[in-house]
Design goal:
2 copies of one chain form a homodimer. Chain A is built from 28 helices and 23 strands. With 840 residues, chain A is α+β, with helices and mostly antiparallel strands. In chain A, a hairpin with a 2-residue loop joins strand 1 and strand 2. Chains A, B: Residues 665-729, 772-832 form the CBS domain.
Chain lengths: 840, 840
């Protein structure tokens, strides 16, 4: 029956073997064709007679053009005729034009990395669990459990706020000291012609602090690099990220971010707060701290499973965001939108509660730092709400805002593209620890040098007092009580710079200074993001946008006639409205870089503290997202893609109705019998990397072909082997084991190499019945991919067993089997791409 | 084996038959005991040998006390020993004390009404669907479909805003006319001693308009009564509500709410906006308007299925809320939090978009009505943002706010309890249409009479100009350019009253007026909610709260020493802070009555337009919710319970681990073979009320016992019968049918009585293969209830087939089978109650 055909492929002519099944009246489908070529992974599945018949009942079903493309980036398969080609062809035109100008849209690596595993969100209802649930049915336990969940959430909020306030205090004080020192040298040396002194000092301070910070992160826990938000989002999506929630990561993250900012890098402390809050939550949830020296303190173990920890972590991330931006609602949404499949109102209330506690406590602490703890006017570390006048907008300004949103989208996409190129470069060439540290130091020095150069070179003098009365202003060459206008932007933290751009008077910053600032800060931002230091990208994005938004404001002020009836009046703008344009610019730039979701929209609105003005902010955020998405993905998504983390989208990619569970499942399966020889288990764990094994009925007539009885996890088997819960055949297992024994190993389970078995023990038998999950979710092989996807995503599964009609396991669908399908487009056709799964 | 035992039950001694299975070492479980008593519905399921063995492996598993209680309100079963008894015993104490004071906590009817069906959210992937999907794979269709979804959402936003602005304009203008008229008579007659004239006139106007409004609602579409929010929430939860989204409901709702407010009822127009927006969305989504006279206009049919309509409706409800309160984020959350299981980011963006469009268009239109369409300062119908000074709060005020929240929770619970009693009374005695209309008229007259009485009786004169310069103020007996302070509260719409309470100067309203107002408005609010008129409960709740909040503010002002260091300074309060207390009071009262969820919190914060002050609002909303929940459910939930709508909670009730799928499923099943005789189908549809039928393999050896092949819906079968898609055995069906033929019947499918079949036709055979869903979700019988629940809720299912190990259907789990389990508590024990399912 097999036919070898020669087919025209992207990479030249290839031979493929087409194996048609059944009658010829059927259209060929992917199930029936095995493509034999490099890296092809399709397999053959026999099609049932009934399905065959079904297909024949659709006479009008057209025979689609089959197109196979195998290219250097993985196997891609599109057997559907052209879709959304209208959009994609336009997209292609733009790409071509971009190429002409040398700006190439990136092709993200089409791969997933196999090391990323799913969380075990699904509860394993084995006999041990039911036994424990019995205990919890006493009133004492239920009340205690309920109360402790709220108490943990409360503690998460309080501790996150404490951390936020401490970091805020330390950074502000030390940064002020540093810049005050530099300013004095600056002003003295401008007179005495020794300007090289402050320049060298500045670069020296930056270098030392940044190198220390980079070393801390690089050697203690590399997971603490960057803002951590891509990791947090992936974790909430259901991916286990080893090392993310450890004490080492906490130390590296919190100390690191202080050093990064003091080291003069273009970064903020807000993104890292979400990560720090998550670590606090995980630590409190587990009730155990593992110190760096291998010791640990343990308090309680009741919540030690992925399900509970993930819920607490949602509270921690929300608290972090809430502390950072004074945005309790935005924080709650931040945590929950990624975790959509698990949203429920009870959890939402708890997350909201911790988020509110964090916001309130931060407010209290920062007010206390500022002198009066009862004032309660600073609910977050960053606020945009110090506008002197009400933020009002007029219909006539909307087109200007939309224009700005388009700019924001385009420049944001440029930011992402440049950073992507840099990331790939770093992965290839700068992958040694000492090189990473040197690079960070270099960036810090260049930041200082460039800032110095601009301040001296442009020498833009102004006599307008800056908005912040504590701001450090250097005179440099300015006289008559004037000061260098760029000094208020560079002799401060990036946050102070953002605030100055938003709130300083109209005349404070001239167009030349602003243009120079935008260019420099944009490049520094691109260079800084992805360094091996703890840093956030929120504040630099906002500052870049605020600077060019201010430019637009100045432009509008000069273009508009001085007609008070028109609503936009230049003298009015001069008085109050330039900050408004700066704010819109900041939102546009952030939207373009991060592709704000609903939660980020709410965060910015909460941060601005003005809901009427929220409407234009929402509009520009949406438009900048659309414009940016047209060119490339957002910065966080780019990060996730580069790392090959298999996050699941919210919906199944389109055009997958033809694919069946049997097409996407991994197979063959490794299965165990309900009573399995220890040797078999040990060997299987050693040889295979599977994390879950179906348990099947022991059918002596057809060995290895029994009905599905349940699912057992690798972690469970390792604990059982370690605890030696087995016995010679026919005897009763000697020891008892409770669910707490499993928890003691959470979250870092054993490795198979840590298990030592004698030859006699290997001949024993393990009874898996009390331990396996007796009701794993299953689908039949003929289920379509969208249905499989909905089930998997909706229930937050890790393993979904595919069975045949007789309830015998045929294969397993895991996260990677679903995440590898992605919509791509090529030459006017929309196609489903299959990402490669690589080991590194 | 059967044993008849006499067991002590709540209603005296009863005989029950206990049928134990298997060995005696097993603890008896619900599966094994059949309670034979009145209304009991438990059934016997054989337990597999393996499960038997499993249970025996848990030696420490205690034998629980089995407790069976059958009481007058339905069968309740608690076989778990005391849980959360600590909480529930305290709850019980409070209940007892409340009883001593004559305030009894209500026992909501423990029942579900069988007429409520689920939506078909799950896509039926039959052959017809796959055929249609093929068509949509062309670029034209995909682009068109994508664009039209956004376009429909845009239109929903625009039309909702148009409606909102129109209602606003009409109500404001006419109400002003009405009250101006009354005021003139008032002022004239106070001098001429003919006050009975304005009183009678007022009552007369109210009577006529309200009776007209009530008649409209009662006769045109009773579903339009009330705010519609409980129905909308149920619909979003997945319950089909017939008549809710019809053109009749739209007319009754929109005209009705105008009449209710002009008729002087204590109600608002905000809740109804959510309902109106939903109807607009459903109409636009279906692309068809069915007019009252039976005619209809049809535009397109692509979105005619429950899945798409539900998504559009989420946009409509969000737009309605957004228009009403200027709260685009709150509106989005309102729609999506109830629909949590179906949340995905793509839909979220669309809903947010329509919500934003609605907000923006409302802003534009209302600004235009107010004279300048480019000002854009009124994003919603109701705003609390006209405070003259910044809303600041001080730590020292938090205890006062918490105290107020407790009051709000308690009085809110009282509101719900009283309204519940009234609702039950109405259901029993006031269930005729003409009585309903008379009651509405009576309430309108009493509202006028009481307002008149208070104004004349208290005669509280003030010379402070009201906040709203257009407000109608009557002098009545006041002289010296003073006016009656209550006239600013009563001679206006409830919205105007709320605004006056929030923003009027400190001296405007004296304590006596306020106390009288609170009492009267509370009682009127209770009486009005549930009348057969179109009305919202938001505004009256807020007004009651604002009034007593103002009282608290006055009290605080008088109690506090005039010490400026203390933060709360009475002279300060007099100047600016009384409105703050009014706002907090309003939030507390709303929280107590409605038990605000996250979305309502956001709505109020957005409405206040001040996020710093959002924090105390969030706190009081949470506390008032907790206090209220301790006593009774919220008003909307009470409504849902009284109507017996089977909404599903977010999580499975606790303590259900012991229940298996086989315990909760409905059985026996009505099944069809893949090729079924028309007569059988017709008879089954006529005799049974099932909405879905499993299709099984035709096994000649064991008839009626085949493997599961798929699931076919009642609606599909009715269409197939109507279109006569059958033929004599062995022939090919004569006609073709497409998925569009099914859509033409959406959403009002045929009744079986509309189908006419000859005897010859009845002997024909229908081939169900192309029509049934070939991959329905199934669970095995041993799945625990929490797992069944998660699957059902997470995927938004309507039918979940329970199979045995051989994949043969055993029973069906539907929404009511899960919704009937509810946690209750009785005599210190927490128990799982099973609600009765009744026909009416």
């Amino acid at each position: 029956m097999d036919e070898v055909q020669t087919v025209s492929l992207a990479g030249g002519e290839k031979e493929i073997t087409v194996i048609p099944h059944g009658r010829n009246t059927r259209r060929p489908s992917t199930e029936e064709i095995t493509v034999i070529g490099p890296e092809s992974k399709f397999h053959v599945t026999p099609v049932s007679e009934e399905e065959h018949e079904l297909n024949n009942r659709v006479p009008s079903r057209p025979t689609p053009e089959l197109k196979f493309e195998l290219d250097d980036e993985g196997d891609t398969l599109s057997n559907h005729n052209s879709i959304t080609a209208l959009l994609s062809s336009k997209f292609r035109d733009i790409q071509k034009r971009l190429k002409q100008y040398g700006i190439e849209s990136p092709r993200f690596r089409k791969r997933l990395v196999s090391k990323w595993e799913s969380l075990n969100y699904d509860v394993c209802e084995n006999v041990l669990y039911i036994k424990e649930q019995e205990k919890y049915k006493s009133k004492k336990w239920v009340t205690l459990r309920w109360l402790s969940k709220w108490l943990v959430m409360f503690s998460i909020g309080i501790m996150t706020a404490l951390l936020a306030a401490t970091i805020h205090f330390v950074v502000e004080k030390l940064a002020h000291l540093k810049f005050d020192l530099i300013k004095h040298y600056f002003d003295d040396c401008a007179k005495n012609n020794c300007l090289y002194q402050p320049a060298l000092m500045w670069m020296g301070i930056n270098l030392v602090i940044t190198v220390a910070g980079a070393a801390l992160v690089t050697f203690l826990q590399p997971m603490a690099a960057g803002s951590g938000i891509p990791y947090i989002k992936s974790y909430l999506n259901g991916v286990k990220i080893p090392g993310l929630l450890t004490f080492r990561a906490f130390v590296a993250k919190t100390l690191g971010v202080v050093m990064s900012i003091l080291g003069g890098l273009a970064c903020g402390k807000e993104g890292p707060m979400a990560h720090s809050g998550s670590i606090i939550a995980a630590g409190l949830g587990r009730g155990r701290i593992n110190f760096c020296n291998g010791k640990s303190i343990s308090f309680y173990s009741a919540f030690r499973n992925d399900h509970e920890i993930r819920d607490f972590m949602a509270g921690g991330a929300a608290s972090g965001v809430s502390s950072a931006f004074g945005a309790p609602i935005g924080g709650t949404l931040f945590s929950l939108e990624e975790a959509a499949s698990f949203w429920n109102q009870d959890l939402t209330w708890r997350v909201f509660f911790s988020s509110m506690v964090a916001c309130f406590a931060t407010n209290f602490l920062i007010s206390a730092i500022n002198g009066d703890p009862t004032k309660l006017t600073d609910p977050g570390l960053v606020r945009f709400n110090a506008f002197k006048f009400d933020l009002k907008f007029d219909l006539i300004e909307i087109p200007v805002f939309i224009f700005m949103a388009v700019i924001g989208g385009l420049s944001g996409a440029l930011f992402v593209v440049m950073n992507y190129k840099l990331t790939v470069f770093r992965k290839r060439y700068l992958n040694k620890n000492w090189i990473k540290i040197i690079e960070a130091g270099l960036v810090a020095m260049v930041s200082a040098a460039v800032a110095f150069g601009l301040m001296v070179g442009i020498n833009d003098c102004t006599d307008k007092a800056p908005f912040d009365s504590h701001a450090v202003t250097a005179a440099v060459y300015c006289t008559d009580k004037k000061h260098n206008s760029l000094s208020t932007l560079f002799l401060t933290t990036p946050e102070g710079c953002l605030k100055a751009l938003l709130h300083d008077p109209f005349e404070s910053h001239g167009p030349v200074s602003l243009v120079a600032f935008v260019l420099i800060f944009f490049l520094l931002g691109v260079w800084t993001y992805g360094l091996s230091v703890s840093s956030g990208v929120f504040i630099p994005s906002l500052a870049i946008g605020a600077a060019w938004g201010r430019l637009v404001g100045i432009g509008v002020a000069h273009l508009m006639p001085e007609n008070p009836n028109l609503g936009v009046n230049s003298s009015l703008i001069k008085q109050l409205d330039v900050g408004k344009f700066a704010l819109i610019g900041a939102a546009c730039q952030l939207g373009g870089i991060l592709r704000t979701t609903i939660s980020l929209t709410v965060i910015i609105v909460e941060c601005t503290d003005d809901i009427s003005f929220g409407l234009p902010i929402m509009i520009v955020l949406m438009i900048s997202k659309w414009v940016g998405d047209f060119i490339t993905t957002g910065l966080y998504d780019m990060n996730v893609e580069v790392m090959g983390i298999p996050t699941l989208p919210f919906e199944c990619p389109p055009l997958c109705d033809d694919l069946r569970a049997s097409d996407v499942m991994s197979h063959p399966l490794a299965t165990f019998k309900t009573k399995e020889k220890v040797e078999n288990i040990y060997r299987m764990l050693k040889e295979e990397t599977f994390c879950g094994f179906p348990v099947i009925e022991d059918d002596p007539m057809a060995p290895g072909k029994g009905k599905l009885k349940g699912l057992i996890l690798r972690n469970q088997l390792l604990v059982l082997l370690k605890k030696k819960i087995f016995c010679p055949e026919g005897q009763v297992p000697p020891r008892n084991i409770t669910i707490k024994d499993f928890r003691d190993f959470y979250p870092v389970y054993l490795k198979v190499s840590e298990i030592d078995l004698s030859d006699e023990e290997k001949s024993y038998v393990m009874d898996l019945k009390p331990y396996y999950n007796p009701s794993p979710y299953t689908v039949e092989q003929k289920f379509s991919l969208p249905r499989v996807f909905n089930l998997f995503r909706g229930l937050g599964l890790r393993h979904l067993i595919v069975t045949d009609e007789k309830n015998m396991p045929m294969g397993m669908v895991t996260r990677k089997d679903l995440a590898k399908f992605r919509v791509g487009s090529k030459r006017g056709l929309v196609k489903i791409e299959q990402l490669k799964i690589e080991d590194k």
